[in-house]
What we know:
By secondary structure, chain A is of the alpha/beta class. Chain A is built from 16 helices and 19 strands. Chain B is built from nine helices and seven strands.
Amino acid sequence: MPETLFDKVWNRHLVTPETVDAPGVLYVDLHLVHEVTSPQAFSEIEARGLPVRRPDRTFATLDHSTPTLPAGADGERPYVTPAARAQVERLESNCARHGVRLAGWDSDDRGVVHVMGPELGLTRPGMTVVCGDSHTATHGAFGALAFGIGTSEVGHVLATQCLLQRKPKAMRVTVTGRLQPGVSGKDVALAIIARLGFGGGSGHVIEYAGEAIRSLDMEGRMTVCNMSIEAGARAGMIAPDAVTVAWLQGRRYVPAGEAFGRAAADWLTLKSDPGAVFDAEVEIDGAAIRPMATWGTTPDAGSPVGALVPAPRDASDEKALAYMGFAAGEATTGHPVDVVFVGSCTNGRLPDLRAAAEVLRGRKVSPGVRMLVVPGSEAVRRDAEAEGLDRVFIEAGAEWRLPGCSMCIAMNGDFVAPGQLAVSTSNRNFEGRQGKGARTILASPATAAASAIAGVLTDPRVYLKEVVDA
Amino acid sequence: MPEAFQALTSKAVVLSQANIDTDQIIPARFLTTTSREGLGKAAFYDWRYETDGSPKPEAVLNRIDPAERRILLAGPNFACGSSREHAPWALVDYGFRAVISTSIADIFTSNALKTGLLPIEVDQATWDDLAAFPDQPVTIDLEAGEIRRGNAAPTPFTVERFARRCLLDGVDTLGWLQARLPDIAAYEAAHEMETA
């Protein structure tokens, strides 16, 4: 019987199949850990006297609670609270005690967990990857089955390397056609979520397919998979191809030499068979996608930059518009922007920073705007600085920070003040997500940069050489 | 390990808004804890408190007695967003033992079941009926798989069978998984691939 990509990866990892009475036992190849969702899990296994079963399949980083400003002259890092410092120190001690590798403050590898994993080659096609973080679906861009789990399940994986799971349904989202210049993976993601609706992917693993998806680089594919959860889906996956194989070759934890050839040959078998049946199929015209921005307080409330805010469908939409200070029938491009944030596990990779820098080069951030650029990892920071991107940002008037989740989740001291309007390359525009009372417009790095220059939400194609619109 | 759950009789709190995300249930700035205790104060914090920390008198969750209303009747797509298990921890610490909605996010459902908070999905008619009588005690009977209100006909509901057994009998999920370690070791021996 023809199988989907998801079927193939799922079946490879079943220790015991599910029955009517019990879920299946699913083996986890890679467990990524960060400071926020792990301390209670380590406490749980320690209370039971259990070791970390496979420290060699476990890898930790510091990202959520970490300051993005450097240590002061006294060597002290500017943590937002003593609790944030204590949480970081707890992960350091947990990793030391259990023999778990940690990309800590002194590591050149440290980064936002979903940026770091792929760039080190920890994430590879066909693997199962989990993390106590809903954006774990990012790793599905490599044809891995990757999904977020809660802290109790983090404990399960630490102790057994397995999870109890019932198999989700499968959905295929096919994005056809050729993307327009100036349209990025983020715009594709926002267009898909707008189509599916906020809960439209619930209970499903989505496979993204089609010419427009194939045309994305690995970073763009990661952006698309990253936001699967914003449609409610457990995971997003893209079948590996030559782009995937080329991206992985030479990375630290990817096999080298003959072993690489064998691995790559296997990776390329990971695709849905012709005739494979999905529980749901959605097709989207990629050529029709324009630079996107959200107008509401859910990630599905998105439309092309400059489009008019639609009439509210229900009380929740009315509440969202009241919170955002937008009116139905107006364009959101008239509202002054206070903050622009470029970064996060959605858009904190090198091509994202290049896209923002391309728009900003030789231009200035509007005087009323505070712009923060936060690389997704130390590797991204090094590469960006080697290309001089940091100079472009600083000369334009933006702040160039240390890697971390920063203003996406706003728990490290980087936040948008009450009432301020932010254009953000992150993944969630919920009320208060970027700080209490913060109003968030989600958009691509290019759109964020264009908005920083203009001081209002702006289509980046205004500043790009190839201005194309249909 | 969660408390066992057989049946609950309580009034409800209605939060009818759609898409109540886990950032509303517990804002991220409360996640720097290393404990799972005491998060009830942070539950719906920005709905309940002003920026200066004073309680909002009009907030429904400040006006009710949590001990009297242990059922949260929530709008569709409840607890979407972040995977933070702090969300059910906060709801349980506030006083809730059950959440009823027409749809509840996948990861939250999994987390809630491990926290002893029963997530129940019902159809719109049932939800509307319950929302019309929030002050009338409702019995959620997990063993029977029924919601009962006064003399109205009971409404059946289902919970994933394994999670249901864990809640009813107080089965320790991690312990159950540990009992599979021989199978897990056999899988590893057969499938070992290059590790990271």
